[in-house]
Amino acid sequence: MRQRKQISQPEVGTYPLPIAKLHGVPAPVQRGLKALRITTCSQLLAAAGKLEEREALARSAQIAPELLLTIVQRADLARINGIGVRFGQLLEELGVLDVAILARQNPQMLHEQLQRLNTAERLTRRSPTPAEVEDWVSRARSLPILVHHLDQVSTVSTLKAGTSAHSAKQ
After folding, report:
1. DSSP-derived secondary structure letter, 168
2. In whole angstroms, what is the distance from residue 4 CA to residue 154 CA?
3. What is the rounded CA–CA span in Å between residue 145 and residue 104?
4. How much is the pLDDT for 16?
5. What integer pLDDT is reported at residue 149 of this predicted model?
6. How far apart are alpha carbons 85 and 164 in whole angstroms?
7. Which of 61, 85, 93, 145 has a Cα at 20 to 30 A from 41?
8. Which positions of the chain have pLDDT values less than 70?
9. What DSSP designation does 166 have?
10. What are phi and psi of 55, to 5 degrees?
11. Cα–Cα distance for residue pair 152/146, rounded to 1 Å
């Protein structure tokens, strides 16, 4: 009897997308991360999800901390199926920078904002459908938070005090 070769599936919680596939990752940054054996979004999120880890990685890989944060946030959004480079750019333009922010969105309002932005700027050939946006938000709400910011505690207390989410930037 002939045995079938088993195809390995990624472990739950892993995101095998190569960092090189993310939008706007300069070659020197890719090389710096690769030298530290960080080549996938999963590895990057594990190594730089927390602020202290991100600062240490920025120093050791000689990457500007702000650039590293942007790349980490893009890796975080890449965990959501259907958010590619172009839709990711639309979300970034609206300030939806990572999974935690996406999870807090009202899908209908987000869809309307994405459609208005894309109509004005023509960043993508088509705008995401309402069903796609609903799926993104639903998936974001089911995922663990992997990107942590120093000011998350102050953001929560500011929101509880009744100010708008837009004034509490991450």
Report:
1. S
2. 54
3. 12
4. 83
5. 85
6. 29
7. 93
8. 1-15, 151-170
9. G
10. -65, -40
11. 13
Q: For residue 40, what are the β-bridge partners?
A: 18
CB 70 within 8 A of CB 24: yes
Distances (CA, A) of 141 to 6, 47, 63, 160: 32, 22, 30, 20
Structure tokens at 131: 């069903």
Structural contact between residues 100 and 145, judged by C-beta atoms closer than 8 angstroms: yes
Contacts of 6 (CB under 8 A, 6+ apart): none
CB-CB contact of 45 with 76 (8 Å): yes
DSSP state of 18: B
Contact between 87 and 128 under an 8 Å Cβ cutoff? The reply is yes
**Against a cut of 0.90, is the pTM above it?**
no
Q: Are 71 and 41 in contact (CB under 8 A)?
A: no
pLDDT at residue 14 in the model? 63
Phi-psi region of 37 (alpha: psi -120 to 50; beta: other; left: phi over 0): left
